[in-house]
Amino acid sequence: MEEELRDKRFWRRVLTKIRRNVHHDDAEDALHSAFLRLHRYRRDHCVDDNEAFLIRAARNVAIDGFRRQERFTQKDFDEICLELADSSPLQDEVFETRARLHYIQQCLDQLTPRTRQIFEMHRLDNLKYREIAERLGISQSAVEKHIAKAALFIGQWAKKRDA
Prior knowledge:
Layout lengths: L1 H5 L1 H14 L5 H16 L7 H22 L2 H11 L6 H19 L3 H11 L5 H8 L3 H23 L1
InterPro entries: RNA_pol_sigma-70-like (IPR039425), RNA_pol_sigma-70_dom (IPR014284), RNA_pol_sigma70_r2 (IPR007627), RNA_pol_sigma70_r4_t2 (IPR013249), RNA_pol_sigma_r2 (IPR013325), RNA_pol_sigma_r3/r4-like (IPR013324), WH-like_DNA-bd_sf (IPR036388)
Protein name: Sigma-70 family RNA polymerase sigma factor
Pfam families: Sigma70_r2, Sigma70_r4_2
């Protein structure tokens, strides 16, 4: 029996029979997996017909693969990839963003407290001019002037930085 497993003709014959039972492209992989199963099985058991064992094991391997493939669709794969994807920013992006935030903080610190408060209410809290005016008890025109003042100052601040 051991000599049979060393014979190339034996392996060609087994592979040909496996190709009849499983997809042609998967036959060699199935045969390889079947051989591993045969090897493990023979440690504790006697095998009378290596060829029959290999063919049956190869079919089982192919069936198992088909079942796994049916359960694991492309959609499942895409979902797993999305779960594994790291959406956190890269280190250099974090550093650059922190530097920009520090720069903006310096700029906003130069505004008067009232102008800064109104600008932040508009830009950070997404409040409309009318809403800001109502909350602070000032006119909508005053809010517009504070926003314009902040925008002009920030624009000039940015030009100084770029120069």
